[in-house]
Amino acid sequence: MTTSSEDVGASWRRLEPDVRREQILECAVRLLGERPYAQVSMTEVAREAGVARGLVNHYFGTKRELYLEVVRRMVMLPYADSIGPMRGPLKRRVDHSVTWFLDTVSAYGPTFVAVTGAGGVGDDPEVEQIIDEADDLAAGKVLEAVGFAAQLDDERQRAVLRAYGGLARAAIREWIRRGTLTREDVHLLLSNALTSIVRDVLPGMSAAR
């Protein structure tokens, strides 16, 4: 028994708009993890998702706007749903936080590296703003998880955590793209750095104010 084009069209039209949008976004995430931004077209995203090109434009606008949505998906990790305050020694809390982060990132490793590195659309202020917002969100959630009680109302403290975010992205790039570090190496690096920040750097900055 064959399936007519009308049946196929009816099948994808029956999907709810949010579901269809999510499917398109997932296809874009996958393609941008496989090839650079310049080599991925909206037509290819549409073909991968099994929809008309116009539907991709309807949901996301331009290729750049779709790319920004992929960036948001990659850097706005599901902190609120997946991580919360923990108990026990600082080392255990830090290890748990870093393990959660690496588990989450590894699900979309190549795309995470691509959109947070230099292979996207260059020095794009909107991309930088999205990443900065994600770093601030991550800082608050991670510090809450490891039990650091101070409020990050000081720009210097937030800058320290953004710098840590840069270290994390660079370490992940070495692990996933270049293979120069193992996951265990990255875990050791990020755990020790976060422990030092929580135990020594941020309290020292607070005391110096």
By DSSP (H or I, 4+ residues per run), the number of helices equals: 11
Which outline best applies? elongated
Mind summarizing the main beta sheet? none
Q: What is the C-alpha radius of gyration, as a whole number of Å?
A: 20 Å
Helix/strand order, N-terminal first: HHHHHHHHHHH
Concise structural overview:
Keywords: DNA-binding. The protein is mostly helical and 209 residues long.
Q: How would you summarize the topology of this molecule?
A:
Elements: H1 5-13, H2 17-34, H3 42-49, H4 53-60, H5 63-75, H6 79-82, H7 90-106, H8 109-116, H9 125-146, H10 155-178, H11 183-207
Helix pairs in contact: 2-3, 2-5, 2-8, 3-4, 5-8, 5-9, 7-11, 8-10, 9-10, 10-11
GO molecular function: DNA-binding transcription factor activity; transcription cis-regulatory region binding
Domain HTH tetR-type: 18-78
InterPro entries: Homeodomain-like_sf (IPR009057), HTH-type_TetR-like_transc_reg (IPR050109), HTH_TetR (IPR001647)
3D architecture notes:
- The chain has helices at 5-13, 17-34, 42-49, 53-60, 63-75, 79-82, 90-106, 109-116, 125-146, 155-178, 183-207.
- It is elongated and about 55 Å long.
- The termini are far apart.
- It has 209 residues and is mainly alpha-helical.
- Pfam families: TetR_N.
- This is TetR/AcrR family transcriptional regulator.
- Keywords: DNA-binding.
